[in-house]
Amino acid sequence: MDVSDKMGEFLLLGPVSKDTIIKDQQKSQTVGGAVYYQSKVFDGLGLKYKVAATLAKEDKNILDYFPDKTNVYPIFKPETVKFENNYYDDNPDHRIQRSNAPEIPITPENIFRVLSKMRGQCDGVLLGPLLPTDIPLETILFLNKNNFPIYLGLQGYLRCFEGCDISLEPLKEIKNLLKLVNILFLDEKEARVMGNPQDKLEEIAEDISQNGPQEVIITCGSRGSIIYSKKYGRAFRIMPYAPIRINDPTGMGDTYMAAYISRKLVNEHPLDCGKFASMVSTIKLESLDGFNKNWKYVEKRMRNG
């Protein structure tokens, strides 16, 4: 299916990272960050996109790993974000994270330069912060004033640091931020930090939506996902697809987000978008890198269950 003629161009915004993956007591180095994993999805599905990514100039070779580095506008900063993801057992939902946590914000001035290169052609912005300071509220306000639909992966705004160790805690201005967001993505742990941990996830998603987002998507790893839609006034539960094999679970939430937004171009119903995103995430889980298939392959896998 060719959906590229249905849109102008998406902008993927956030830091690219240098990741260390620890699994089965083995270490490997890889490229990370929401913008990286999302670019793999958009490229594989044949969509038009641009990436605006922060990194240090000395690490510009990282851009060679993107599926099409001509689509990447680097925003050079003093440091590059580094993450360590330790998968300490056989459950891909379990991990311990550490980061160097540099303060390298994307400013409205940075965005103005990027949009000038894009000639103002942008059908939506996917925000992929890894840290609370990556994309300040003033930058999101700038995007909002330009009437760009905003899709947000919330995790970066919830990360709190003690040295290099990470815990979860909502940013003080989180409610002001959510007012500007069209569709919000977060995982189960993040959802319980945002709401009453004793409530059902469906109830938490609905409560979060009252702050602004038209849809709130909570991913639950191997237990699927939950989507609350204001339009339909209800929550939808999406069951996961079983993977053929499990390789690297890093970036699955970012992959889900990009796939969900992509599917919106041909079918706006949350149930269809969620099923499509779930399958794309499963295919990513089977890969040693990001998503590496195409639209036809995804739909064939969905038909075969």
Q: What is the strand arrangement across the widest sheet?
A: 5-4-1-8-9-12-13-14-15
The beta-strand count equals 15
Approximate strand percentage: 25-35%
Mean pLDDT: 93
Tell me the distance between the termini: 19 Å
Structural class: alpha/beta
* Individual helix count: 10
Order of helices and strands: EEEHEEEEHEHEHEEHEHHEEEHHH
Radius of gyration: 18 Å
The name of the CATH architecture is 3-Layer(aba) Sandwich
CATH class: Alpha Beta
Global morphology: globular
**How would you characterize the largest beta sheet?**
9 strands, mixed
Low-confidence stretches: none
Q: Helix share of residues? A: 25-40%
Counting structural domains, the number is 1
CATH superfamily: Ribokinase
CATH topology: UDP-N-acetylmuramoyl-L-alanine:D-glutamate ligase
Structure characterization notes:
By secondary structure, the protein is of the alpha/beta class. The chain has a single domain (about 5-305), classed as UDP-N-acetylmuramoyl-L-alanine:D-glutamate ligase, CATH 3.40.1190.20. Helix content is about 30%, strand content about 25%. The chain has helices spanning about 35-45, 110-115, 135-145, 155-160, 175-180, 190-195, 200-210, 250-265, 270-285, 295-305, and strands at about 10-15, 15-25, 25-30, 50-55, 70-75, 80-85, 95-100, 125, 150-155, 160, 165-170, 185, 215-220, 225-230, 235-240. It has a nine-stranded mixed sheet with strand order 5-4-1-8-9-12-13-14-15, with helices on both faces. Helix 6 crosses helix 7. It starts with 9 loop residues before the first strand and ends with a helix. The model has no long low-confidence stretch (mean pLDDT about 95).
